[in-house]
Amino acid sequence: MAAKFKMSRKGVGQLLRSDMVQAEMVRRAEVIKSVAVSLSPVGGAGDPHPGQYRESWTVTSRRRGGERRNRATATVRNTAYYARWVEYGTERVPAHHVLLRAAQTGGR
């Protein structure tokens, strides 16, 4: 005899808003952040702010996603003003793709 499953849209919505899912999103974001910190380049002797990029990683959590903007989310970002240039590079600086490589770990 095969098992039957009937999905409840209301139940799935409650799950996606639950504290349990929020906690898991934050846990995964913290793992991604720790990988990003370990991959972050640190400037050499001539750098006016060595280590600032590495120390600028943050995790924020709030209810934002979904149609009603009430789903659990967690965001990893770097607050250094030059983080975009480190991630994507410029004509003089090669791209490091720190957040991309950290996110590929999947927060496992």
Short note summarizing the structure:
This protein is an alpha+beta fold and 108 residues long. Helices cover 42% and strands 16% of the residues. The chain has one domain.
Provide structural commentary:
- It is a single chain.
- Strands 1-2 form a two-stranded antiparallel ribbon.
- It contains five helices and two strands; from the N terminus they run H-H-H-E-E-H-H.
- The protein is elongated and about 70 Å long.
- The protein is α+β, with helices and mostly antiparallel strands and 108 residues long.
- The chain has one domain.
Features:
two-stranded antiparallel sheet; 108 residues; elongated; alpha+beta
Task: Please write out the topology.
Elements: H1 9-16, H2 19-39, H3 52-55, E1 57-65, E2 71-78, H4 83-88, H5 98-103
Antiparallel strand pairs: 1-2
* Class computed from helices, strands and strand pairing: alpha+beta
Largest β sheet strand count, sense and barrel closure: 2 strands, antiparallel
Order of secondary-structure elements = HHHEEHH
**Would you report the number of β strands?**
2
